[in-house]
Amino acid sequence: MFVNFRTHARMTARVMPAVLAAALAACSSFEQGTRGIADAITLYKPEVVQGNFVSREQVAALQPGMSRLQVRDILGTPLVTSLFHGDRWDYVFTMKRQRVEPQQFRLAVFFQGDSLERFEGDDMPSETEFVQRISRDRKVKVPKLEATEEELAKFPAARPEGEAAPSASETAQPALSYPPLEPGR
């Protein structure tokens, strides 16, 4: 059977887009199927945890006018600080684990000079919600993270800003001294 070259070219031009579309669809479903199989037989994937977890309780403790030191005491050291944006701290937390939905949270804290101006970011989970989200066993009970008055009485009271620290003789604890980090010159 002899086919004319032009007829063959026209027929190929008509059939080729359908063949390409079918091939792309097959590749897509092949990719999804093989990913499921590969995940099932993969023995170990490392957990990736990056950044600082900031809970809803920590965000609730922030108040405009707080100093940078007070914010750092509540939230911890920021993950990102920029030379170009000295009045902004960014807290980012990401976590990827097998069989657990990836977690990603962001919080930006803005300062005016040394005092907290505002903060914005994702709706942070409470500590209990976060533990339940990342736990393989969904019925984990998170311990109460509040101290009683008796437990707090064991620690010295916080001093108001500007008040001098008690002297070593007043605290009845021996003063610690550390060797210099660099030899004297």
Structural description of this entry:
It is a single chain. By secondary structure, this protein is α+β, with helices and mostly antiparallel strands. It contains six helices and five strands, in the order αβααββββααα. Strands 1, 2, 3, 4 and 5 form a five-stranded antiparallel beta sheet that branches.
Keywords:
alpha+beta, 185 residues, elongated, 19% strand, single chain, 6 helices
Quick structural summary:
The protein has about 180 residues and is an alpha+beta fold. It is about 35% helix and about 20% strand. Strand 3 and strand 4 form a beta hairpin.
**Segments where pLDDT lies below 50 for 5+ residues?**
none
What is the string of SSEs from the N terminus onward? HEHHEEEEHHH
Number of contiguous helices: 6
- What does the main sheet amount to? 5 strands, antiparallel
Q: Using DSSP, what is the number of strands? A: 5
User: What Rg do the Cα atoms give?
Assistant: 30 Å
Derived from helix and strand composition plus strand pairing, the structural class reads alpha+beta
Q: How far apart lie the N and C ends? A: 100 Å
Helix content: 25-40%
Mean pLDDT: 77
Could you tell me the strand content as a percent range? 15-25%
